[in-house]
Design brief:
mainly alpha, 11 helices, 197 residues, Leucine-rich Repeat Variant, single chain
């Protein structure tokens, strides 16, 4: 056999093997066994970016799964993909299930500043009907930090939220964002000390 033919056979077999490994990894990322999932997340984190991106489509498909446990596992895996997963996680913020929306916001929070393209969508979630979603959106905006500055007006409005947890998360986010507007709003929101006579 000619060396060039052997080379192409090797490349074909290597590609086939890599495809099997990706399918196995995708399956492990969604496993019911937390140990298997944990090891799969570690393997995912060690993959080169090009291989991570090839798993994205599989994980994105699972964001629409009817079993919310599978959706949450897919979101966890997407958060390991960092910035490349942001568009897919932003899509999950519109899922009808509030716990999926909350999980997507959590995953974006784990990504932190590289999730800055999600700021508008997260700011919109501050008006979500579910308080846990609003709370997580505020927390995530804080984790994004100064890059979430355009969400400050919505966070300021959240200081008046009916949920104390949302109010606290909004205060924390404004502190972490740290712009002048955020800090002034925080100062204004502090209760004024009562004068004693």
């Amino acid at each position: 056999m000619k060396p060039i033919t052997l080379f192409f056979i090797f490349i074909t077999l290597a590609g086939s093997f890599a495809g099997c490994q990706r399918r196995s990894l995708a399956k492990d990322l969604l496993s019911d066994n937390p140990d298997v999932r944990g090891k799969a997340l570690e393997r995912l984190g060690q993959l080169p970016n090009i291989e991570k991106s090839s798993l994205t489509s599989t994980l994105v498909e699972n964001l629409k799964h009817s079993d919310t446990r599978i959706v949450h596992r897919a979101i966890d895996a997407l958060s390991v993909l960092r910035g490349a997963a942001v568009p897919n996680l932003v899509d999950a913020l519109t899922n009808p299930d509030p716990f999926v929306r909350m999980s997507a916001a959590q995953a974006l929070g784990l990504i932190g500043e590289p999730a800055k393209d999600a700021v508008d969508s997260l700011a919109n979630l501050l008006k979500d009907s579910h308080p846990l979603v609003r709370e997580e959106a505020a927390t995530t905006l804080g984790r994004i930090g100064a890059s979430a500055a355009k969400a400050v007006p919505r966070l300021v409005a959240s200081l008046q939220d009916e949920s104390e947890e949302v109010q606290e998360s909004a205060k924390d986010a404004l502190q972490k964002i740290g712009t002048k507007e955020a800090l002034v709003a925080l100062q204004k929101s502090k209760p004024k000390p009562k004068k004693t006579s």
